[in-house]
Write a structure and sequence with these properties.
Structural class: alpha/beta
Number of strands: 8
Strand order of the largest sheet: 1-2-3-4-5-6-7-8
Order of helices and strands: EHEHEHEHHEHHEHEHEH
Number of domains: 1
CATH class: Alpha Beta
Largest sheet: 8 strands, parallel, barrel
Pathway: Carbohydrate degradation; glycolysis; D-glyceraldehyde 3-phosphate from glycerone phosphate: step 1/1; Carbohydrate biosynthesis; gluconeogenesis
CATH superfamily: Aldolase class I
Radius of gyration: 17 Å
Bound molecules: glyceraldehyde-3-phosphate
Pfam families: TIM
Helix content: 25-40%
Distance between the termini: 20 Å
Shape: globular
CATH topology: TIM Barrel
EC number: 5.3.1.1
Keywords: Cytoplasm, Gluconeogenesis, Glycolysis, Isomerase
Subunit structure: Homodimer.
Length: about 260
């Protein structure tokens, strides 16, 4: 397994921080975080705040931006949706796909995550594919099986030449926004399952090409321990990414 992958510290603002709050966030956050080799900071602001975020991070190539969702079609009558090319035109480099709130609140299917991942890759952006089990699935000892079920069809549709642009985020649904975090050992075990699945599909060495992030109640207090686990390349942070000082502490916890 490669141990030199770039650390990724990602903040998903979900439906928080409009344009003026986004500008205030970056005015406070950026002076707290020096650019550092081997570390990439990513934000997923709401679409209406994207332009404000982009303006705020000009001159900071260590900070990249993504969108929280896209439609797989190139354009057309899809009220409320964004296409990949529109996101790219706005300056997005990454796209969240299959976030648990898309799957469990908005009914996004595995087939839709496949279409979105393919559209994102074909459009030249990098997908951050989110996978994770519910508490009932974990209690039924199906955590690993569920993650493999979510990953398999997507990986089957991603050609190996695009593999190095894929990012995977393991986010147990029961840990998201609950204050309950997976134990570092559980996170490490699930990350290992993700990497095994990558190697089963693409062959030996594939797992080293794909950063795998942990998400679910990551806070300044637990970020360093989670990121010290084997196979945990970074974090995808919701609530704690809304506070400039708190998220800066998480970024610094990456070393
Ligand atoms: O995308 C981020 C995850 O849903 C984690 O959210 P959280 O840090 O608020 O638990």
């Amino acid at each position: 397994m490669t141990v030199t992958r770039t650390r990724i510290l990602a903040g998903n603002w979900k439906m928080n921080h409009g344009p003026s709050q986004a500008a205030r966030f970056f005015a406070d956050f950026l002076p707290l975080v020096e650019p550092a080799d081997g570390r990439s900071v990513v934000f997923f602001p709401p679409a209406v705040s994207f332009a404000a975020a982009r303006e705020a991070v000009q001159g900071r190539p260590d900070v990249r931006l993504g969108v929280q969702n896209v439609h797989w079609e190139a354009g057309g009558a899809f009220t409320g949706e964004l296409s990949v090319s529109m996101a790219a035109d706005a300056g997005a480099e990454l796209v969240l796909v299959g976030h648990s709130e898309r799957r469990h609140v908005f009914g996004e299917t595995i087939d839709e995550t496949v279409r979105k991942t393919v559209a994102v890759l074909e459009g030249g952006l990098d997908p951050v594919l989110c996978v994770g089990e519910t508490i009932d699935e974990r209690r039924a000892d199906r955590a690993e099986a569920v993650v493999v079920e979510q990953l398999g069809p997507v990986l089957a549709a991603v050609p190996v030449e695009h593999l190095a642009r894929l990012v995977i985020a393991y986010e147990p649904v029961w840990a998201i926004g609950t204050g309950v975090t997976a134990t570092p050992a559980d996170a490490a075990a699930m990350h290992a399952a993700v990497r095994r699945t990558l190697e089963e599909v693409y062959g030996a060495g594939a797992a080293g090409q794909v950063p795998v992030l942990y998400g679910g109640s990551v806070k300044p207090e637990n970020a360093a321990e989670l990121m010290s686990q084997p196979g945990v390349d970074g974090v995808l942070v919701g609530g704690a990414s809304l506070d400039p000082a708190g998220f800066a502490a998480i970024v610094r916890a990456a070393g």
